[in-house]
């Protein structure tokens, strides 16, 4: 019976369903409440009525109709807008989630379903010992990939049992402040920088961590590739539109998993979303480096990114190297000389310069005297109705522009044409075996892109001019400290390609237990016989077989970054005023408008020239303003416009990072740049 004092005009009944495991106890409870009762009071009343003795500290109220958590316990029901028709669910905030990692391994762990995804990913990365969690996010599998998986499961005669690494006992994933696992903010080396094995001094960390030594090995090392049959059954994008579908499922970083319809024990993909890998260090990043390597490897095998046959064989050689190296015991690799460590450190410094354009240990150059290049090159201009016109000219590269003259003597006068490369697209057009060293320049003009090819005579000339073009496209000159490392990086990549010049004899392909079909995409397994592929991979292998294990992975990542399509995430959009759909490529430093039919770039806009961007949430339109009164607006057709908005804001946020921050992130700034005002 309800007393008359309780049964006032202001009180009403609230239905709450409790998520508990006690079958003999009811799950639905009616609470008599008033609008001025705070959320904490509702939970207290509920627990008293349930009469089950257990720890309720991880429980919170979930409002089913509004799809939101009621986490502000001091707010009243009136302030939250909760009335008698509300259906509340009293459930745990941490739930089990299956995550498919970049190496295609699945882990099962407890994740906060009430924290925003940005925070949830940070907690996941602490469990998995991956630094720089801001580079990763959670992705829902595309519908096409799911359909292919269901078809494969249906055709399979035996039931598919997925090998899942269970990390559910993790103190971090339970929401408790426990052992940090292998994630260390101190500068104590956690991994051997050559082999990637856990450093002996830190093995004791494993006792409290969900990452046992064996589990760490699964995450930090590459394992033998899947069979060609398995590869054929995996989803492979065929067109740009297919590639756009891959990027449609990114979760909103500013909302929780539960708010986005993710249920307990669902499977999501954990992937590197932003292609700016900051501060890679083998001493702390064995898992991170391996997962980046694996994401690159699968992107190449499944043809999510295009590469030439020559490049595919280099990637295959580096993969074959890993598998052979792993057949050796990891203990044999634990003891390495200092010179090898220095080589890896040198490779890393070059890699960092490539990624962030940071300073190297070289002496500072005199920026008052900007260097210039002057040389004989051949100019190629494509013509629609005739063969390409190839003519030799005297070229001069200064600041961010290229000028060309009839010959060296006429360079004192005015040039035939001056090309400003700031904001242009630079694409390598190289075939080392055929001695072809070309640079394709797509230069922005009023009505699209002006296409120009430069042909160099040899590797050294190509490396110098290519590096200058890459820097100029970013608005930098050859006086920049990253110029010489860029030249060195290009030359080292060309050296890997130049296996035909290797003096070492190629081993007999039949004497090595290698399935070449596992290391290349299906296109090449159809084109060549197994023995032909094996022989060509072993030829390329001669140039990489002397590298330490971690350096080989870093070289693979570096080669991946050299591909023209690297770091591009595609979306189908409709630009304001246009009558047809276009493709938009989002990269770490620019946006590219691409012809959806031909795949040719139309226009490029750099983030460095961007003044502001905003979203009209009512019509779901993204509007961006650039320097020189250039403005664009588009609606996104293949995904929610919030995803593109978050990509732009996320890349700008990542560009603010510095090593002085000691890994602390300004999470508020991230949400300010990416959250939007829906």
Characteristics:
alpha+beta, 7-stranded antiparallel sheet, 24 strands, PH_Kindlin/fermitin, Kindlin_2_N, cell adhesion
Characterization of the model:
The protein has 678 residues and is α+β, with helices and mostly antiparallel strands. 29% of the residues lie in helices and 23% in strands. It has 17 helices and 24 strands. The strands form 4 sheets. A 7-stranded antiparallel sheet has the order 14-13-12-11-17-16-15, covered by helices on one side. Strands 21-20-19-18-24-23-22 form a 7-stranded antiparallel sheet. Strands 2-1-5-3-4 form a 5-stranded mixed sheet, with helices on one face. Helix 8 crosses helix 15 (549-561), helix 9 packs across helix 14 (530-541) and helix 10 crosses helix 12 (483-497). The longest helix is centred in the middle third of the chain and has 19 residues, at 338-356. The model is unreliable at 171-187, 200-208, 329-341, 356-368 and 500-507 (pLDDT under 50).
Write out the strand line-up for the largest beta sheet, numbering strands in chain order. Answer: 14-13-12-11-17-16-15
Mean pLDDT over the residues: 81
Helix content: 25-40%
Biggest sheet layout = 7 strands, antiparallel
- Cα-atom Rg, whole angstroms? 28 Å
What oligomeric state best describes the polypeptide chains here?
single chain
Give the total of beta strands. Answer: 24
Number of helices: 17
Shape: globular
Output the structural class.
Answer: alpha+beta
Strand content: 15-25%
* End-to-end Cα distance: 46 Å
Poorly predicted tracts of residues = 171-187, 200-208, 329-341, 356-368, 500-507
């Amino acid at each position: 019976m309800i007393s008359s004092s309780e049964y006032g005009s202001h009180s009403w009944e609230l239905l709450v369903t409790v998520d508990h495991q006690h079958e003999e106890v009811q799950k639905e409870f009616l609470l008599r409440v008033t609008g001025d009762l705070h959320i904490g009071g509702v939970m207290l009343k509920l627990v008293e009525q349930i009469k089950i003795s257990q720890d309720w500290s991880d429980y919170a109220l979930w409002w089913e109709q509004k799809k939101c958590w009621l986490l502000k316990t001091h707010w009243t029901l009136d302030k939250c807008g909760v009335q008698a028709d509300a259906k509340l669910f009293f459930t745990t905030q941490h739930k089990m989630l299956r995550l498919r990692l970049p190496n295609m391994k699945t882990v099962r762990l407890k994740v906060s379903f009430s924290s925003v995804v940005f925070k949830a990913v940070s907690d996941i990365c602490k469990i998995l010992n991956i630094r720089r969690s801001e580079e990763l996010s959670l992705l829902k599998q595309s519908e096409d990939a799911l359909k292919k998986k269901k078809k494969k499961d249906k055709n399979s005669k035996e039931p598919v049992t997925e090998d899942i690494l269970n990390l559910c006992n993790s103190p971090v994933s339970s929401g408790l402040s426990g052992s940090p696992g292998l994630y260390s903010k101190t500068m104590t080396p956690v991994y051997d920088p050559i082999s990637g094995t856990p450093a002996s001094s830190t093995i004791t960390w494993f006792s409290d961590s969900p990452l046992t030594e064996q589990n760490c090995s699964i995450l930090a090392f590459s394992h033998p590739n899947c069979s060609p049959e398995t590869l054929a059954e995996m989803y492979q994008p065929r067109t740009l539109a297919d590639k756009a579908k891959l990027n449609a499922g990114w979760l909103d970083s500013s909302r929780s998993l539960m708010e986005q319809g993710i249920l307990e024990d669902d499977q999501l993909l954990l992937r590197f979303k932003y292609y700016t890998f900051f501060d890679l260090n083998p001493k702390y990043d064995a898992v991170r480096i391996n997962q980046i390597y694996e994401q690159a490897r699968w992107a190449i095998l499944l043809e999510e990114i295009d590469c030439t046959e020559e490049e595919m064989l280099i990637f295959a050689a580096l993969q074959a190297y890993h598998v052979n190296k792993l057949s050796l015991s990891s203990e044999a690799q634990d003891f390495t000389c200092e010179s090898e460590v220095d080589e890896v450190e040198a490779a890393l410094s070059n890699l960092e310069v490539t990624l962030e354009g940071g300073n190297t240990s070289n002496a500072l150059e005199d920026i008052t005297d900007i260097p210039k290049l002057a040389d004989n090159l051949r100019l190629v201009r494509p013509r629609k109705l005739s063969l390409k016109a190839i003519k030799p000219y005297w070229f001069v590269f200064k600041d961010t522009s290229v000028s060309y003259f009839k010959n060296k003597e006429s360079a004192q006068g005015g040039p035939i044409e001056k090309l400003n490369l700031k904001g242009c697209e630079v694409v390598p057009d190289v075939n080392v075996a055929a001695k072809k060293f070309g640079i394709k320049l797509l230069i922005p003009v009023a009505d699209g892109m002006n296409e120009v090819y430069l042909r160099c005579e040899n590797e050294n000339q190509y490396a110098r001019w290519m590096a200058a073009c890459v820097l100029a496209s970013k608005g930098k000159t050859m006086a920049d400290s990253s110029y010489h490392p860029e030249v060195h990086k290009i030359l080292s990549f060309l050296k890997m390609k130049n296996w035909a010049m290797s003096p070492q004899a190629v081993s007999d392909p039949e004497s090595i237990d290698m399935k070449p079909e596992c290391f290349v995409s299906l296109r090449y397994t159809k084109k060549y016989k197994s023995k032909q592929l094996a022989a060509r991979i072993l030829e390329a292998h001669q140039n990489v077989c002397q590298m330490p294990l971690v350096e080989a992975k870093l070289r693979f990542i570096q080669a991946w970054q050299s591909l023209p399509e690297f770091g591009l995430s595609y979306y189908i959009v409709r630009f304001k005023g246009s009558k047809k759909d276009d493709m938009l490529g989002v990269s770490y430093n620019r946006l590219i408008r691409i012809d959806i039919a031909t795949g040719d770039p139309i226009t490029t806009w750099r983030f460095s020239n961007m003044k502001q961007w905003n979203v009209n949430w009512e019509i779901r339109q993204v509007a961006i303003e650039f320097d020189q009164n250039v403005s664009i607006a588009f609606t996104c057709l293949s995904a929610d416009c919030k995803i593109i908005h978050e990509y732009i804001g996320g890349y700008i946020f990542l560009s603010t990072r510095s090593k002085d921050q000691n890994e602390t992130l300004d999470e508020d700034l991230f949400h300010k740049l990416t959250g939007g005002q829906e």
